[in-house]
Structures are given as structure tokens and as C-alpha cells.
From TrEMBL:
Pathway participation: Amino-acid degradation; L-proline degradation into L-glutamate; L-glutamate from L-proline: step 1/2
EC number of this enzyme: 1.5.5.2
Domain Proline dehydrogenase: 64-325
The organism of origin for this protein: Phlebotomus papatasi (Sandfly)
Protein name: Proline dehydrogenase
InterPro entries attached to this UniProt entry: FAD-linked_oxidoreductase-like, Proline_DH_dom, Proline_oxidase
Amino acid sequence: MRARQYMLELCGGAGNVLTHHKTIKDLEQYYSGISDNKDVKEFLKNMTTDKEGILHLFPWSGIINENFELSDSFRVPDPHTGQMRRLISQIPPKEEEMFRNMIRRVNTIVKTAEELDVRIMIDAEQTYFQPAISRITLEMMRKYNTKKAIVFNTYQCYLKDAFQEVTTDLEQAKRQNFYFGAKLVRGAYIEQERARAAALGYPDPTNPNFEATTEMYHKTLTECLRRIKNLKDSGEDAKKIGIMVASHNEDTVRFAIEKMKEIGILPEDKVICFGQLLGMCDYITFPLGQAGYSAYKYIPYGPVKEVLPYLSRRAQENKGVLKKIKKEKQLLRAEIVRRLLSGKLFYTPKGNYVPI
Ligand SMILES: Cc1cc2nc3c(=O)[nH]c(=O)nc-3n(C[C@H](O)[C@H](O)[C@H](O)COP(=O)(O)OP(=O)(O)OC[C@H]3O[C@@H](n4cnc5c(N)ncnc54)[C@H](O)[C@@H]3O)c2cc1C
């Protein structure tokens, strides 16, 4: 609330710093009455902007600095007195410690991914946690995605805000010159989202029906493809945007392939990849791989006592997906019969498995 109030004061009542294109000059003007104040001078000195000169108001990068106190990250001078004031409440030491530990672990994981030259995809959770996850992931992208997309954020297209979120983050990546990685999903927590919204009396954040979610998915993916094509056409590195189409939905996978063709993005460009869960929809994953697309299987990994509850939760949340197993079984049966009849029991597919 305090942050929003500050932003409203600075922007003159509406919008935010990005939409108003506020620059350091505007900020100096805002504090012109108390420009001699030592704290104000220090605050203005540390201010950074993106490559278009738009203000980067809060030191968000501080949140992934393992040696930085979260409570110190968001402090601004009062425009009348110059006294520094907190935009977030003081966090108890125990919580500060837990937050730092979490950041240290995330840094270790991402650094290891960088060393091994693999990508790391951060999952999306319920909307009441997601802003924090997304913010940390974006900061990790800014820090690590300087030469290629290593860190990927996840965007749930069942959310009414999905398109807006993706385009805002794409803009941020463009302005701050880092590689953007996104995993696009429909979203796994629709029942919890709706139940919580109804119980607490706030508007349902999810799309009204499945068709609206599909439309959101396809619109968001199209926007990413369009931007990749722009990068390609302007001679920039097309890999500045990397997308995983994480879906078991045949129409969505077909849509992605057709749009890639229509817009002019080739599988060899290695900017789009596909992902399905291990043991699910192999009839989608395998042909994609054989046709030269980067296709991945997601493998839940960990101690049995942790993985089994995870899988049973996924099964509960994705009852719809389980219906596809019926189709898969029919296809597997037909394939076994075909191989028996043709006398070719074993088959090694040849694909082009260079990752995106
Ligand atoms: C590789 C991979 C990674 C994933 N990572 C994440 C993640 O990080 N976070 C996450 O939340 N999920 C994640 N998922 C799960 C994903 O969000 C979906 O729940 C799951 O893939 C089913 O959707 P689908 O696109 O495969 O297609 P389908 O099986 O065709 O989609 C059916 C699902 O759409 C859902 N749906 C969406 N919108 C609506 C609506 N408005 N009304 C009714 N139903 C609706 C239903 O819940 C139903 O289960 C991941 C999936 C994969 C394959």
C-alpha cells in the first residue's frame, strides 16, 4: 500500500513509473525542494535507469543479494522532510534469515545450471504466492540471462492477467537487455484459485471457461513468436526470447507449430521448445522430437516419500490430463500390434536433440 501511494504521488495520481516513462530528471524535480538533503542526494545518486532512460526506481536486484536485508531494500526519502521511510514493514529477523537462505539456495541452483549449460525453469504456483516467485525469477533472469536464456519463468494462461504479465516482463527484458525465458502453461490450481476467491470475496483471477484460457494461451504465444520474428528480421539474436510450450493439449501444440510456420520461425532456430510430463502424451512428444523440434519430458525427481505425495496432488489437480492416458493406451496397443505384424519390434528414432 505504501509503495502504491508513493508511486501515485510520483506519477501524479495514476499509472506507474514505466507507463509514465519517468526519468531521473523527473525524480530530481520531485525532490527539488529538498535537493540539499544528504539522504536525498544519496538516493538520487544510486538511482538506475534502463537503456531508454526510464527510471528503475526500487533496487529490486537487492532482493537476490545474499548479503542484503530485505527490510533495507525498499526505502525512499519523504518528499517534504527528506527523511528515509520504509515502503514495506520491518520483517522479523527469523523471516529475514529464511528469505536469505532461500535466495542462497536459488542462487546455488541457477549458478550450477549456468556451469552445466542447462536451463532452469521456475514453476508457477497459486496467485497468492506468485508475485514473489515471479519477482525473484525476473531478478535471476536479469543476473544470469546475459548471454542466453538460462532462467525461465512460468506464466499460467488461465489467469486473466497472463498476457499483460508476459508483455510487461518482455518489455522489461528488452529495456534492461537480458534474455527472456518463459514456460507457458494453462495452470494447475484453478479449483483452489476459484474457491479462495469465493471464500474471501475478491474477483476470480481465472478465465471464465476453458475456451477463454485457450484463447489467452494462443494470444500470448503468438505475441512471443511475433517478437522473436522481429528480433530475427532486425538481425538481433532471436534467442533473446526462449519459450517452452508446456502443454499436453494437441490443439495447442498444433497451433504452436502452425504459427511458427506462418510467422517464419523454424525448429532449427531453437527458440521454441515443447514439454510434457514423463509418461504422458508420448504420442505428442516423440513425433515433435523426430520432426526436429526440441521436445522435453518433465521428470519428477526426489525421495519417494516426497515425490509420491507430489504426484498424487498433480493427479488430483489434473484429472483432465489423466483422461488422455486412455487415448495413449489405445495408441500404444495399436503400435505394438503394428510392430508385431511388420516384424520390426525395435525402433530407434533419429532426431535433432540440440536444446533451445
Ligand atoms: C512441462 C510442464 C510444466 C508445467 N509446469 C507448471 C507450473 O509451473 N505451474 C502450473 O500451474 N502448472 C504447470 N503445469 C501444468 C499445466 O498448468 C496444466 O495443468 C496441465 O498441463 C494441463 O493443461 P494442458 O495445457 O496440458 O491441456 P489440457 O489437458 O487440454 O487442459 C485441461 C486443463 O485446463 C484447465 N483449465 C484451464 N483454464 C480453465 C478454465 N477456465 N475452465 C476450466 N478448466 C480450465 C483445467 O484445469 C484442465 O485440467 C505444467 C505442465 C507441463 C506439461
